Amino acid sequence: MPLRFNRCPHCNQRIVFRIEQDDIDPSNYPAPVYILHESEMCGNLSTFYVDSLLRVSYCELEKKSGAIKTLKTIH
Fold first, then answer.
1. Long-range contacts, 50-56 (Cβ 8 Å, 24+)
2. Which of 18, 40, 45, 47 is the most exposed place for a label (fewest CB within 10 A)?
3. Phi/psi zone of residue 66: left (φ > 0), alpha (ψ -120 to 50 degrees), beta?
4. β-strand partners of 42
């Protein structure tokens, strides 16, 4: 269960989330996954795209189609 560290595209705060291969569609890389930034200041949903090693390639502010799961941030 790898931890991933990144920045929220809405508020630019540091975010941490756990991701597994089961969280993405392996037939499509970079694979989209929705990340919900659970913060009192933010609380926004973004679409992150990960490669086959579950590393974040890039992100979008909006909820884009294609993701199969919504992950919540840990911090």
1. 50/4, 50/19, 50/24, 52/26, 54/2, 54/4, 54/19, 54/20, 54/21, 54/24, 55/4, 56/4, 56/6
2. 40
3. left
4. none
Number of other residues whose CB lies within 10 A of the CB of residue 16: 11
68 — pLDDT class (breaks 50, 70, 90): very high
CB 48 within 8 A of CB 12: no
Segment 33-60, tens digit of pLDDT: 999 999 999 999 999 999 999 999 999 9
Q: What is the pTM of this model?
A: 0.91
Instruction: Compute the distance between CA of residue 26 and CA of residue 11 in angstroms, rounded to an integer.
Output: 29
